[in-house]
Write a structure and sequence with these properties.
366 residues, mainly alpha, two-stranded antiparallel sheet, elongated
Length: 366
């Protein structure tokens, strides 16, 4: 590449020598108004040469930026401490992007949300209190004129009763990163890296021994912290078994799985899908040919309403400790309601079915 400058394209901190490929790259950068960032920052040789092998070293890896990023590049350097399984070194470039280029984060996802203390409904007294509050709040709302308004009243009643009976708690999002990370580990790792950089700059026996000592100290402290973290984890599980059991249940469920961290996808053969849809097509065609128009029009107005037993069985079959739906209501809030709440659910579902049936009938008449 050489160290002969080209304004806004090549700086003065490249190699002393130049070859044909370097000359071609210089012409390419100058013609396209590119900037070769490596040549604009003064660095030590350890942070300058990108390749070293068999006693030779050279700069053959470059960071090239276009016209928009020319004035935003703050630094370009080489890191030799990262083992990437190659005779090339890691090249890094720090660019200060403009604020208007940065993607706006969704702050609503970062905030800690409130969730209901569903586990309290396992206690008979609190469950009874929730049922009483739910029956009271449902009685305050008369039957609405539309199905959407009726569902809105039910949702408001459930949330109000849940806030009064079980309350809410903040759901903290787990932060990314190492769980055991603390200030002590940060300091010992920083000391180890500093010792390693000193050894790379001056590879002497004394510097290597210093690096080994700090490396062993870092390993000892990290191992000790891992053990303490595991002890705390076991203690939390033992405490949780006699509490809400949310954490212990997840751990035991994971341990009982036969396949861990794997996904098994049993693909269905194409021929099976073809045969399946052929059967459906033939069945529907025969049924439409045999249908009597008068019988069809007479029976189209009939609605198979949901019975109390079917609703009760459906509520009992709902699983606990599942994530809430779009409305923020857990399955336990529906499941542990009293008779009045089930009546409200049944009325809402029946009206919804009638509305859907009327819409279908209107489409057939058109």
């Amino acid at each position: 590449m050489g160290n002969q400058p080209i304004p806004n394209a090549v700086g003065t901190f490249g190699e002393d020598c130049i070859n044909r490929n370097g000359q071609t790259l210089r012409e390419f950068a100058s013609f396209n108004d590119f900037k070769i960032a490596n040549t604009f920052f003064r660095k030590k040789e350890i942070h300058k040469y990108t390749w070293s092998a068999r006693g030779f070293k050279s700069i053959i890896d470059y960071v090239i930026v276009n016209r928009r990023l020319k004035n935003l590049v703050q630094d370009t350097k080489i890191f030799q401490g990262y083992d990437i399984g190659s005779d090339h070194f890691l090249v890094t470039c720090r660019i200060n992007l403009l604020s208007r280029w940065k993607q706006q984060s969704n702050n609503s996802r970062l905030t800690n949300e409130l969730v209901y203390k569903i586990y309290l409904l396992q206690e008979e007294s609190i469950r009874s209190l929730y049922q009483q509050r739910l029956a009271k709040t449902l009685s305050e709302y008369p039957m609405a004129s539309t199905i959407d308004k009726e569902w809105e009243n039910i949702k408001i009643s459930i949330k109000k009763a849940a806030n009064e009976a079980i309350g809410t708690k903040t759901k903290y999002r787990r932060k990314k990163g190492l769980r055991i990370w603390n200030e002590e580990i940060r300091n010992v790792i920083a000391n180890k890296r500093t010792a390693y950089q000193i050894y790379l700059q001056n590879p002497s026996e004394e510097n290597f021994e210093t690096y080994k000592i700090r490396r062993n100290i870092a390993k000892t402290i990290v191992s000790k912290t891992h053990k303490e973290s595991w002890d705390r984890f076991i203690s939390r599980i033992e405490t949780d078994i006699f509490g809400e059991q949310s954490m212990a249940y997840k751990v035991l469920k994971h341990l009982n799985r036969t396949n861990k961290d794997t996904i098994e996808i049993n693909n269905i053969e194409d021929q099976k899908w073809i045969n399946h849809y052929k059967d459906l097509w033939c069945t529907n065609s025969l049924q439409n040919d045999n249908d009597d128009p008068e019988t069809t029009s007479a029976t189209s107005t009939g609605i198979d309403e949901i019975s109390d037993e079917e609703l009760e069985q459906s509520l009992k079959s709902m699983k606990n400790r599942k994530a809430p739906g779009p409305d923020g209501l857990n399955s336990e809030l529906f499941k542990y309601g009293d008779t009045s709440s089930q009546t409200a659910y049944l009325s809402s579902l029946t009206r919804s079915g009638k509305k859907d049936q009327l819409q279908r009938s209107g489409e057939k008449l058109e």
